[in-house]
Structures are given as structure tokens and as C-alpha cells.
Amino acid sequence: MEQQNQNQNQAADTEFSRCAVPLNQRKTYFSLTIVWTGFVFVITSMMAGGGLAAGMDFKHIILATLGGNIFLSIIAVLISIIACKTGLTFALLTRYSFGSTGSKAASIFVPVVNLGWYTIQAATYGHFVAQVFHMGQVGEGICMAVSAIVMGIFAMCGIGAITILGYIAIPAIVFLSIATAIRSLGVIGGMEALFAYVPSSDMPLFTGITAVIGTWVLSTATCIADIMRYAKDTKAAVSATLTGLLGGNILMIVCGAIAAIAMQNSDLTVILLGFGLVIPSLILMTTNIFTTNAANLYSTSLNLSNAFKMERKKMLAILLVLSALATLTKPYEIGFLFTFLNILGTVVPPLSGIILSDYFLVHKGRYAAYDKASFCKWNPVPWITWAISIALVYMIPFGLPSLNGIILGAVLYTALMAISKQRVTTNLAEEA
Amino acid sequence: MDRYKLSALIGTVIMGIGSFMGCLAENPVYINTGNALLVVSILIMIYGYSRWQP
């Protein structure tokens, strides 16, 4: 009977949320790039570009964008390699360092923050639609709540539906972003005027880099594993990761910055409508936010499926209701967004440091096969590492907080694991 | 080349034309044509990419 139930659960788990992705289900570079780039193409990156433009000249915006994305790419590539080699979701990967019960607690953190992202994006979209159709306060509230629910449909349908959405959305985002940037350049007065732009306030380069890192650090440290576990080989995973970040994210931030410089405003909805581009801006916002939020919620559902052992679709329904209610707090405002990004840029990197050091240093680049491994219930080392690292990141007065966090997480975890001689996994085959 | 692949590729090209026309044109006739092309291209791409993917 138990065996029968297990078989039924496995048959229902078409998204491989509780096992490794089999080799015959792996995807090509092109397919992965579409899903990952669709995820990376997000309106908040454009808004972050607008935020940078408020405190930096264009040369420094380019430097901050490049610096931030190179940092993100390094983390993302390393996490992608782990995900591709194991075929496991981020939630299942944390079992090797946090233990089986500890993993559930750690994998709750990611969806909570992801849901925060999801809600900000849904609220931004609802706010935009309400502005386009001149709806009042009540109309805006309804638009934001409905957006949160409608975006969840693609996550319900799974990775196949997200891929089709990506194939349609990505060309639209590329064409429309470039066209918006060209239009903005015309308003500014060309490239020379763009480079001569002087911001009204002064933002230090490190603050700018941290904000850029904040835009994607959570996903490059966590959600990317849920996408790249489908990679056929590490070459496909690494190439797709770099295409999305170095191509997609840089394009988004720079286009957002150019548009903001032209219109002296970092609210993208106001900028796009200011150009009178109603239909293009509606399509840009829809494709941009839907692709990201679909993949975001998909990843969230996989994490919670691990934590609560509840059916993915039931959990999604609960999350959508919560998110719809949370949109009513209007989390799209730029000050709130930047605070959120800066906190993420500090809190998440130590977690990536822990996961990276666990795979590459503690386990020497080789995890026992998931179905042949048994896990201890709880490993306190990653929790202690994470807490100390966050505290130190806030105390250390020099360097880049995100970089400090990842180095501290990796070094402390490796040292504490060596001192405590904790063993989280046991290979069942070896035991037998 | 099957009709799904053809639809996907033609839809993408029309989207490119529509995007730049809709965003960069000055004349309202061209702007509206660009907007219409954008909407049509999305429908063609949904038809194409739902069955064919590279």
C-alpha cells in the first residue's frame, strides 16, 4: 500500500520537486536560456537602473551595472554547476548542508522572500494598468490583487507553460526595451548629452553595485538551481546563465537608466506613459513581469513542496490569496523597493557561500546521489555561520557587503565543519 | 518548414517591426500600425511557439 502511494506521488510529481531530474528530461541551452532570460528580464531591474540614475552619472551607472552583474554571474555559474550535476532543486540541495529538518526551515526562507518579490511585481503591474486606464484608488487595489492571481496560472501549469511564455515575451522585451532607450536618447539629445548627464544627488559606487547585486542575488543564489537542474550538461547551464545575466540583466538596467535620465523620474510606469507609448508599454510590462513572476512562483512552490509535503497546486492557491492581499499595501514605491534590495544584498550572499562551500570544499565537488543518501535531521553549523556572517557584514566597514557576505559564509562554514567534524549525509550503499 | 515554425518566425519578425514602429514613429498612422502589428504578432507567436520550439 505504502509502495503504491509512493508510486502515485512520484507520478503526480511531474515537476520533479522531490527527486533529481532524470537525464531524459534534460533541456538544451536554447530552452534554458529562454526560461532563465525570461526570469531575468524584469521591470524591477529597469527601476533599479532608474534608481541608479538618480545618484550617478552614466559612466558610473555602467560601472556599477557591470560590477554587480559580474559578481552575480560568478555565484550563478557555480550554483548552476551544482544544480546541473545533481539535478536537484535548491530546496533539496540544502539537505546536504542543513540536514533534512534544517533544510525545511532554510527552504521556507527562500519562498517568503520570493513571495515578497512576487507581490512587489504584481503590485507594480496592477498600479501600471490602473494608471493606463485612469482607475481610482479602488480600481488600483482590484487591479493589483487580480494581477497577483492571474500571474499564478503559468506557475500552476509548470515549466512547459513558462517556456512558451518566455518564447513570446523575450523578443517583445528586447525589441521594446531597445526602442524605449532609443526614444529616450532622442529626448536627452544623443549619446554625448547622455554621458554629460549630472545627477541631482551623489550615490557612492559601492552602494550602486550593492543595489545591482540586490536585484538578482536571491535568484542567482537560489532559484537558478530550480531552472538549471534541467540542463543537459554544465556547458549548457553555464552558457544559459551568462546569457541571462550579462545579456539580459545589463540590458534591462541600462535601458531603465537611460529612460529615467530622459524623463527625470525612476518610476517606469510614469516614464513609459510620459512618452505616450500606451500599447507598447502595456505589452512590455505584461511580458516583463509575467515571465519573472511565473518562474518565481514556480520556484516558491517547489521549495514549499519540500517544506510542507503539501501538493504543489494547493500550496500555490494559498500563496496567491496571501500575495493578492499583500499587494494592497502598495509595495511598488521606489523607497520600499531599494530598502528591500539592500537587505537582500546583505542577507542572502552568506547562504550562497554556505551552499557553494558545502559542495565544492566540504564535499569536494561530489554529492552522494539523492536517492541513495540518508540525511541527519539537523546541522547547526550553517545556521551559526549564517547568523555570524550577517552580523559581521553589518560590522565590517570596508568592501562590498555582498562579497563580504559570500566570503564570510564560505570561510566560516568550511572552518566550522572541519572543527565540528559534522557529517550530514551518509551513503546508503556504503552503509549496506 | 511546418506551419508552426513558420508562424513562430514570422511572428517574431513582425514583432520587431511593430515594436520599433510603435515606439519611434512620429506620425500617428505609423504609431497605430506599429501597435496593431505588435498585437497581431503576439497572436501569431502564441500559435507558433505553442507547438514548435527551437
Helices and strands, with pairings:
The complex is a heterodimer of chains A (432) and B (54).
Chain A: H1 2-12, H2 29-40, H3 43-53, H4 58-86, H5 90-93, H6 95-98, H7 100-132, H8 137-150, H9 152-157, H10 159-188, H11 191-195, H12 205-228, H13 234-263, H14 268-274, H15 278-308, H16 312-326, H17 334-347, H18 349-362, E1 373-375, H19 380-395, H20 401-420, E2 425-427, H21 428-431
Helix pairs in contact in A: 2-10, 2-12, 2-13, 2-15, 3-12, 3-13, 4-12, 4-13, 4-18, 7-8, 7-15, 7-16, 8-16, 10-13, 10-15, 12-15, 12-17, 13-14, 15-16, 18-20, 19-20
Chain B: H1 3-24, H2 28-49
Transmembrane segments (chain B): 35-52
Keywords (chain B): Membrane, Transmembrane, Transmembrane helix
Question: Can you walk through the features of this model?
Answer:
The complex is a heterodimer of chains A (432) and B (54). Chain A contains 21 helices and 2 strands. Chain A is mainly alpha-helical and 432 residues long. Chain A has a two-stranded antiparallel ribbon with strand order 1-2. Chain A is globular. Chain B has one domain. Chain B is mainly alpha-helical and 54 residues long. Chain B starts with a helix and ends in a 5-residue tail after the last helix. Helix content of chain B is 81%, strand content 0%. In chain B, helix 1 runs antiparallel to helix 2. Chain B has helices spanning 3-24, 28-49. The A-B interface holds A 30-31, 34, 163-164, 167-168, 171-172, 175-176, 179-180, 182-183, 275, 277, 279-280, 283 and B 8, 12, 15-16, 19-20, 22-24, 34-35, 38-39, 42, 45-46, 49-50, 53-54.
